[in-house]
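=== RUN LOG ===
request id: a7f3
mode: sequence -> structure
chains: 1
length: 329
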Amino acid sequence: MSAQEKETSNSLYRQWQTLSLLSTGKWTGTRQIQEALAREGVEVSLRTIQRDLNQLAQRFLIESNKETPQGWRWKSDAPIQSLPHMTSSQAVTFMMVEEHLKHLLPPSLINEMTPWFDLARRSLSNQNNVRQWVNRVRIVPASQPLIPPTIQQDAQQVIYEGLLQDKQIDCIYQGRGREEKTYSLNPLGLVQKGAIIYLICTRSDGSDVQTFALHRFKAASLSNQRALHPVNFDIDRYIDAGGLGFRIDSHKPSELVQLKLTMHDYDAQTFYESQLSQDQTITAFGQQQIEISATVPFTSQLVWWLRSFGKKIIKIEPNEVAQQVNEQF
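=== RESULT ===
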């Protein structure tokens, strides 16, 4: 390849990368483009980037905001771009999505995303420094790691499609007592907690919001009926209220309690770094003891978590929580 051909090839690659960095509606500054190109191994001046963009604007539907420094974007009437390229940052993101969220994505979406996952792997294959990021980042559980239970794949696909299409699900579910029951469910959400994936839903008989473990579904079929939603249901409020902490009394919703814990200061470093709630306070008093106060949902998860501290907790209030924690089992 001649020097002129090599320069032309480099310019095409640089301009191709530059176009892939632009989005619709959001301005991307020339310095942002310069920094992104540098991460891809392309060192270039701001003046060259500006010249490239002015040339590209003659052939592509991109526009400048005419400010200093300039910002660029695709015009609102530009067709959806499908450049067969992915930046290193985008490739890393897709690889981590595939690794950590594939169990929560509907199979139909996973199939649709497969070409992008493949493109991400190809994009990283020759970029050692970026590929090392994927090899050096892990997510580990905060508690004892468990191998996820086996999920019946056909039932899982139906459940995900029901959630995606907002349709009712007819299913066979095996409870903890091994008894199989038939339900018609209105899917509301999906939550992964540790090794277990839960379907948040209501039964068609008008029950309260419940959680069903995905691995206990033995069969499922998609109904033609639209799913019925409780008025003002919000998945985040449900979780924040302790819905996934599981209720002390299965017939009552989780209640909020003003939890107070008395501990020695040296045993309570966790609470200085990670709060139990937004309103948590820590008050010091004699003999290097402190009182931690926080408003939290009273759930079985809270009880088990408090038990894990053992004798490090000197006193627990209110009494109803203390009795549960100290209960022999």
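=== NOTES ===
The chain has four domains: 3-74, 88-136, 153-240, 256-326.
Residues 256-326 form a domain with the Alpha-Beta Plaits fold (CATH 3.30.70).
=== END ===
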